[in-house]
Every structure is written in structure tokens, then in C-alpha cells.
Amino acid sequence: DSRRPAATVAAGQIEIRQKFKKAAHFAKLSMGMPDRYALYEAKTVPGVTPYNLALGNYFAKPEIVEIINTSYSGAAGGQIDILAEDKITVHSLTVSIYTVQNTFVESGPAIKTSEGFWHYTTTGFSPQLEGSRVVVTASNLPGNEATAELVL
Predict the structure, then answer these.
(1) Domain 63-151 adopts which CATH fold?
(2) Which run of H or of E encompasses 29?
């Protein structure tokens, strides 16, 4: 019998195929959304289509480059600035603050500035600043997340 035996597919290969299908679906949907298409089109280089960029972006995470305690002293109204990057764009950024005992203080969205930083203004009160943690989570268009923290 000259027929080849049925190929077996490893579990890892199935997982990769499924993720690629999801990436292709994300890229196709993104091409149908004028605002997203424009974001991807703006980043194209010769030989790379907006679709290919969206496909690749599905597999990439954003990067939190720096967390800067500009003026947070434990009181409401303090400022924390964050520099976060992505191959295309950081879609959202959330800041959470915890005490040294890991008690939740507050959480909320940061606002993107015209200089490319993200800015968060605190609303809660933390009785002990030293040892408190600022936890930052950045998300890109496909929903991939990166998390970093700054211990005060």
C-alpha cells in the first residue's frame, strides 16, 4: 500500500493554528473598521500591508517603558505618568495602587497626552506611601496586555 499514514497533529500545533485563525479574524475585522485601518495603514512600509500589520499586532504585547511618580504623595490629586509603547498603538492603560500590606487603594484609566505619555491623577488616599505599589496595565488593539509596577 503506497498511501501515506495519516499525519498526527501535536497539541501545540493545534493551539498555534487556532491562534492564527483568531489573528486572521482580528485582522480582517480591523480592515473593515475605517479608524483601525487608518492606524495600520499609517504604519505600513514597502512590502507590508495594513492587514499584515494587524495580523502581527495580534501576537504582540505593548511595552511599559517607564512609570514616573510625578507628584503622588498618597493623597488625591497626585500625578503618575507612564510611557508605554506598542508597534501600532497602546489602546488603553489602567493604573492601580496598593498599600504596602497589599490593600487596594484605587484604580482607574490613564489619559494619553499629546506628548505620548499617559497621565493618571489619583483619587484615593493611602496612609503610608513608602512600600506602596503602582501597578500599570497597558492594552493594545487586539487586547494583549503588559503589566509593570513601581514600588514607592
Answers:
(1) Immunoglobulin-like (2.60.40)
(2) helix 11-31
